[in-house]
Amino acid sequence: MTKPKPALRSGPIRTRTHELELLAPARDADIGIEAVNHGADAVYIGGPDFGARHNAGNGVADIARLVAHAHRYHARIFVTLNTILRDDELEPARRLIHQLHDAGVDALIVQDMGLLELDLPPIQLHASTQTDIRTPEKARFLQDVGFSQMVLARELDLGQIRAIADQVPRATLEFFVHGALCVAYSGQCYVSHAHTGRSANRGDCSQACRLPYTVTDTQGRIVAHEQHVLSLKDNNQSANLAALVDAGIRSFKIEGRYKDLGYVKNITAHYRQLLDGLLEQRPELARTSHGHSRYTFTPDPDRNFNRGSTDYFVNGRQSDIGAFDTPKHAGLPLGWVTKVARDHLEVQLDEGVSPLNNNDALTYQDLQGELVGMPINTAECVDAARRVWRLVPKDPLPAYKDLRRDLALRRNRDMAWDRMLDKPSAERRIGVWMSLSDTTDGLALTLVDEAGTEAVATLAVERQPPRDLARAESTLREQLGKLGTTVYAAHEIRIACAQPWFVPASALNALRRAAVEALDGARAKALQPLPRDAAVAPPVPYPEDTLSYLANVYNQKAHDFYARHGVQVIESAYESHEALGEASLMITKHCVRWSLSLCPKQAKGVQGVQGTVRAEPMTIRHGDEVLTLRFDCKPCEMHVVGKMKPNVLAQAKREERQRLAEGVPMTFYKARPTA
Asked: What contacts 564, CB < 8 A, 6 or more positions away?
């Protein structure tokens, strides 16, 4: 069916508040290019330094290559510069920001307010998840100091999101819709630094939340043994996109700057299809970039690594948000064991399960409920009618604990799926309407893209009446429609000449190429830089007049920023090592008492139980690591409390002395005078 030609517009089609953005992650530029190809409206990627992912840095030249590809579709590239910075890192960060701006990057994602005190280029600023945006007051402040887009805390429900949206009419609200969930409020976790010296706020988290812990109460009784009580299922908001739009979310963010190519392709395509379906139902909404993607596969988020799924707190507190048994990927149901032999096993597949492959990986639960992985060396079908396969695992069968007949199996690596996503799996094209018309000395070809951008190319050429009118028109359409090496696809080709002339194919090809080049140029001019929002003057006051270490102030410029906005008392960041006693090393909306059905609110009204269950502290232990859980029931939050290890302080002192000896001292903000 031929789509109607769009009307030409001199300005934007819709205001920003009605545009939806699918924001995908990229570990490197090649993955970012595939994210764009698979439908992303924007991509976020780490630069060479300061990107909050220790092993996911990219050179400026690679980012420029990604920018060039994305901008062809009017997709945007955001660079994460969202660690907290020492004073000696501010100038390198400033120079890097200028380089990124020169490379065409559209926006920076930042956490450290000290950056706002520097001489920055006119590049748009986005507030990182590490800024911990949970209240309308915090969001309004960030809007008023110049942030154009902000990602809200994952823990918010729809009502809280709506309340924030009402207070920030100028900012675009962003929300994580898929991927791993950090159990702590972002920016409010210091367990990794306290125990290992690796700071989550500086992109080097040791992921203590994924470890197994033994939980004891105040009397020393074991409540849970070797359970991953701080490990959460993965975020999946597939069912909530329309509700999030209604609440005010406009940017839908996929987690995963450490994730591989297959994950980014699959999850981006999944949410692209969901959002496109929503856009078809809601004509008042539009997407922020151009073009439509076609896929060689059917997206399925369950195919990628996941710990089960939850929509977390979007629809209120849920009882099944934890991945307490294992933080690993169990995979999809496969079948069951029918025979265990000396060097192989036989498996019968469930109905509808795709065939097994060499090098697939399976999982099962042992008798203690622990997940056991079983990579497969060879897989051979021995009875197609009954779906029975003979499998030879990588290791000898006795190595697999509790492997037995009738055991249920799952598959967490499907080599056929992986190989399919390793190949080109999407094509993204921008729709164009083409019109061929006469000029005084030849032909003109007009192209109008789906956004209304127009370009015209002309060619002086001899026109001859054709011998066969029908064939001549068909030939003209065929030659003009050869857009295969471009980013365009013809929605309609109109022959508006006096008659379908005979024109040499070489001339038509030259005319088409010239028109495409003109349209590329017109589209490049139409893509305007994202504006850098100015801060409100005079400086608006910060919602609080006192800041603890939880504000992550790690440099003097950040201190000056908050002081300029009315804060009277400003403590230094936890990484400055001034909070040496017991401290909240993690603040989280997840509650272990609730998850273990030991919450006083759960017991309220239950006869014989009410009043006997109290929110007393608990202790969690992993090896020699012991932490205290304290429960703040009014906001329904949990604090994980502990101290910084002496060896972390000693290592920090050694590093400071080493840097000083090398002539490049480390300098950072301290609230107390240095002895």
From this structure: 539
Tell me, yes or no, whether 478 and 582 share the same domain.
no
Cβ atoms of residues 648 and 192 within 8 Å:
no
Token pair, residue 417, equals 């799926």
Q: Nearest CA to 374 among 338, 331, 417? A: 331
Look at residue 56 in the predicted model and tell me its pLDDT.
66
Q: Give the pLDDT confidence score for residue 1 in this predicted structure.
A: 35
591-630 pLDDT tens trace = 999 999 888 887 565 454 455 567 899 999 999 999 999 9
Instruction: Assess contact for 229 and 595: CB atoms under 8 A.
Output: yes
Quick count: other Cβ atoms within 10 Å of Cβ 84? 29
Please check whether residue 526 is in contact with residue 467, taking contact to mean a CB–CB distance below 8 angstroms: no
Question: Is residue 1 in a domain?
Answer: no
Q: Going by C-beta distance under 8 Å and a sequence separation of 6 or more, which residues neighbour residue 417?
A: 262, 303
The Cα–Cα gap between 349 and 360 comes to 14
Both 74 and 116 in a single domain?
Answer: yes
Convert the pLDDT of each residue in 395-429 to its tens digit.
999 999 999 999 999 999 999 999 999 999 999 99
- Look at residue 16 in the predicted model and tell me its pLDDT: 41
- For the chain, the residue count is 675
Verify that 447 and 482 share a domain, yes or no.
yes
Q: Exposed (0-12), middle (13-18) or buried (19+): which is 149, by Cβ within 10 Å?
A: buried
Please say if the pLDDT value at position 498 is more than 70. Answer: yes
Same domain membership, residue 461 and residue 589: no
User: Contact, 323 vs 233, CB < 8 A?
Assistant: yes
Supply φ then ψ for residue 138, to 5 degrees. Answer: -65, -45
218 plus 251 within the same structural domain: no
Q: Distance of alpha carbon 114 from its chain centroid, rounded?
A: 25
| Residue 506: burial class (beta carbons within 10 Å; 0-12, 13-18, 19+) | exposed
Q: Kindly calculate the radius of gyration of the chain based on its CA atoms and give it in whole angstroms.
A: 29
d(CA 312, CA 129): 16
Type of residue at 578: E
**Residue 4 confidence (pLDDT):** 38
Residue identified by tokens 């955001």 is 78
The 8-class DSSP code of residue 541 comes to P
**577: part of which helix (H) or strand (E)?**
none
Q: How far apart are the first and last CA of the chain?
A: 78
> What is the DSSP pairing of strand 249-254 with strand 172-179?
parallel
User: Counting Cβ atoms within 10 Å, is residue 284 exposed (0-12), middle (13-18) or buried (19+)?
Assistant: exposed
Peptide bond into 600 cis (omega under 30): no
CA 328 to chain centroid: 20
CB 276 within 8 A of CB 288: no
Specify whether 256 is located in the same domain as 382: no
The three-class DSSP label of residue 2 is coil
Cβ neighbours of 255 (radius 10 Å): 20
Asked whether 293 and 269 are in contact (CB, 8 A), the reply is yes
Whether the per-residue pLDDT at 15 is higher than 70: the answer is no
Look at residue 531 and tell me if it is in a domain. Answer: no
This prediction has a pTM of 0.94
The DSSP secondary-structure symbol of 319 reads: S
Model confidence at 199: pLDDT above 50: yes
Task: Find how far residue 78's CA is from the centre of its chain.
Answer: 12
DSSP one-letter string for 229-270: TT-BPEEE-GGGHHHHHHHTEEEEEEP-TT--HHHHHHHHHH
Q: Are 346 and 388 in contact (CB under 8 A)?
A: yes
Question: For residue range 127-178, what is the model confidence (pLDDT) as tens digits?
Answer: 999 999 999 999 999 999 999 999 999 999 999 999 999 999 999 999 999 9
